[in-house]
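In this section we turn from sequence analysis to structure. A common task in structural bioinformatics is to predict how a protein folds when a small molecule is present, because the ligand can shape the pocket around it. The inputs are simple: the amino acid sequence and a SMILES string for the ligand, here pyridoxal-5'-phosphate. Study the lines below before reading on.
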Amino acid sequence: MNWKDNIIKQLGKLNPRFLASVEKGLKAIPGVSQKIDSEYDEIMVGLESSSKPYKNKFTTFTQIPETGRKRADVLHEMESMRDQEESQWKNGFVSGAVYHGDQEHIDFLNQVYAINSQSNPLHADVWPSATKFEAEIVAMTADMLGGAGQDVCGTLSSGGTESILLAMKTYRDWAREKKGITKPEMVVPVTAHAAFDKASEYFNIKMIHIPVGETFRADAESVRKAITQNTVVIVGSAPSFPHGAIDPIAELSELARQNNIGFHTDGCLGGFVLPWAEKLGYKVPQFDFRLPGVTSMSADTHKYGYAAKGTSVVLYRGQELRHFQYYTSTEWPGGLYFSPTFAGSRPGALSAACWAALTSIGAEGYLSATRKILETAAAIKKGIREIPELRVLGDPLFVIAFASDSLDIYKVLDFMAHKKWSLNGLHKPSCVHICVTLRHAQPGVAERFIADLREAVEHVKAHPEEKGTMAPVYGMAATLPLRGMVSDLLKKYLDVIYKV
Ligand SMILES: *Cc1c(COP(=O)(O)O)cnc(C)c1O
């Protein structure tokens, strides 16, 4: 271990709050801030060149052009960018991201978009078609998730994050009105999606993080101990984004029910997989509205629902709860105003495409897609388990995280990137995951993944001296105890993204 790693390791043992204040103090020392900034700038120059490949290939616009460009030119330019980008995800080199991606399905969704491109559900009177599509998407999703014969309702949103933000805001407002809770708390496993942390920050709900056990499932006993008079909601994932683990939803939702607290199952990732997996005979623990303690769920139509990006469903047990999500304004000079979600105007064409995906694929289509994905995932899991240096985390169904006890897993990730793979680097613990989609179910893809992974492991073993390109960054980001600096770095990266 070099001296830097050693310092980082020692600092890691300190209290995070103490560290945060040390960090502030450090940055206040004259020169330190500038030094840090110049180090950052160096990293950012590298990131900038890799994230802006079109800089010298196409005209850059920083002003609206005086005369409009020819439509044909615009289309031609976009087609050429698409051609650059398409082969990686189409050929199954990307974890998650595009969940269906067959050309015929894409063409169909594009046709649907074209028919509905002017539609806006905010104007329900002008586009009753949008209203029909959205109501039916919610109904079909509720039915699929155990809501049949129960009072389960919901709304469409723009994505998983919005569904989660909406549900958390709903519980905050529900608890304030029904229980007089003014200092709300949410009990959330550390493996739950970052959108819950976002909700905590946006809506001033105190985050109580719960550890996960050996199998990467939330520890129910810790949840029980974390419940206070101020708890408004408990969260569980089915499954979690990092390790694809399904939390003990039956147990957790029962704790919530006994304490008259809300329980949200985050089915953003699994909502459109697990119901079909269960029907196919896979062992799926209970996670949906068939559990009486589950009071809300999120399920992403734009993931395994195979809709275009930009839609998700949030569901509630009972109309009363849903009312706490709605916004109404009765005094605005612009007239009586009301909207179900965060947005005002919304893309009705995306709702139409979502409805078209659900109804054109049908239960048979979802079953066969799920079968292909789970069989592919099983082959990938088996292949990873046969590599002695690697270890699959937990016992996942279709999001497979793996780590190594003998190698730097981020160097393995680096090598895979050179082989064109776009996998997810995770931390706490350091690991890599692949989220298996229909793209990986194409012939030969799983075999290619395992072969490349074997080569990566052999390469990293044979070349311990190589540092890798992203591996040091991941390593630093995972272990650096000064989290404020990591956060600053991420913000600077976002600035780079918006740089022309
Ligand atoms: C993807 C995902 C989300 C958030 O979804 P977005 O659509 O990216 O906003 C939430 N939870 C889980 C488990 C997810 O996988």
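The longest helix spans residues 348-385. As an exercise, try to locate the residues that line the pyridoxal-5'-phosphate site and compare them with your own expectations.
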